[in-house]
Amino acid sequence: MRDYCINGRPAEGIIDLRSDTVTQPTQRMREAMASAPVGDDVYGEDPTVRRLEELAAAKVGKESALFVVSGTQGNACAYLAHTQPGEEVILGQNSHIYGYEVGGLARLGGLMARTIDDSDGIIRPEQVTAALRGPDLHFAPATLVCIENTHNMSGGRVMEPGDIKALADTVHQRGLKLHMDGARVFNAAVALGVPVTELTEPVDSVMFCLSKGLSAPVGSILAGSKEFINRARKFRKLLGGGMRQVGVIAAAGIVALEEMIDRLAEDHQRARRLADGLAQVPGVKVGQTNYRTNILLIDVEGTGLSAPEFSRRLKKVGIWINPKSATTLRAVLHRHIEDSDVDKVIEVFQEIVVGQ
Ligand code: TLP
After folding, report:
1. Atom of ligand 1 at shortest range from CA of 212
2. Closest-lying ligand 1 atom to the alpha carbon of residue 150
């Protein structure tokens, strides 16, 4: 049953693959929200927020955690707490922090972005070494490296524990910090079949979202050392993210962490089913990844239609998939998509290609 609304109306008949952010809270979340004990969280008095923060810190193996409004706010608190204005941050040119967070590095942090190639979703130690420029009088000092796992714009690529560890060793040897934008880090852990701590242990801080595939309505977590989180808490306040009786939404986050992680495997299976089906459609190519998680990049150039035009035609029949570029669509699998929806999408792709 698709129990959610689009444009204020029940989404009956619509297959919404724009993002996993469209997931609605589960019934258990709504019940937990209704009965959550609350207090003023700016005074640190909301017991539900404290429970969520303790649970979240333990999940990713960090000393402390902070409940933030969004992934964007969590990443901002991280780079603000790790750096001083005028410093340089090394990160992927396709990363969410660089390309999709409204230029916050520059605007909020007074930071220089030094971008490196992350087209396969992974940042390697030698790339960071090559990007580091040393102590010359002319250079802005680089103090932070950011990675993204899974990597959104490369189609949900997974950065593996060994690669993260190797990168962290290089970053730390050079005296920098390593932050992980782990908006979908539980997708990475589930795809690899490893505890998420194997991915988060080497990094100094990790942000992950409760509001994507995990289905909470609002919120993300930033985790790291106690001292780092104390600093981040001040930046959250600066950004207007000090909330009051916010246990009403933190309660859904607790359910997300307790109940919604393992089922991400279903989204990955459906992503594979969709990828395999679309690969049979003439002119359509599905991006390859090391592990299939819940994001697919679908190249429609060979069909003779642009991705925006393809997206328009899909929308006419109730399938919502956003274009990511002139030639590529991005489809994201999530809890409200069933096998029959996947089959329908494959069928419609066939019809569009054959019928033009
Ligand atoms: N991603 C959204 C859009 O902004 C593109 C999506 O639909 O995928 N890091 C990563 C890797 C993300 O994918 C996102 C959201 C964020 C951070 C920001 O999270 P929010 O939307 O909670 O600010």
Report:
1. 22
2. 11
Phi first, then psi: what are they for 243, rounded to 5°?
A: -110, 165
The token duo for 321 is 């998939």
Quick one: how far is CA 142 from the chain centroid?
24
pLDDT tens readout for residues 102-116 = 999 999 999 999 999
pTM (two decimals): 0.97
Residue pair 62/224 in contact (Cβ under 8 Å)? The answer is yes
Ligand 1 atom having least distance to the Cα of 70: 22
Chain-centroid distance, C-alpha 139: 32
Confidence of residue 134 (pLDDT cuts 50, 70, 90): confident
CATH 3.40.640.10 fits 27-259, yes or no: yes
Query: Could you identify the atom of ligand 1 that is nearest to the CA of residue 151?
Result: 11
pLDDT of 84 over the 50 cut: yes
Question: What is the homologous superfamily of the domain 15-24+262-355 according to CATH?
Answer: Aspartate Aminotransferase, domain 1 (3.90.1150.10)
Among 17, 79, 209, name the best residue to mutate to test ligand 1's pocket (greatest count of ligand atoms within 8 A of Cβ): 209
For residue 152 and ligand 1, the question of a CB distance below 6 A is answered with yes
Distance CA 233, CA 250 (A): 16
Query: How many Å apart are CA 294 and CA 183, to the nearest integer?
Result: 13
User: Separation of 19 CA from ligand 1 center, angstroms?
Assistant: 9
Whether the CB-CB separation of 197 and 60 falls below 8 Å is answered with yes
Ligand 1 contact via 181 beta carbon (within 6 Å): yes
Is 27-259 the same fold as 15-24+262-355?
A: no
Please give the Cα distance from 197 to 277 (Å, whole number): 34
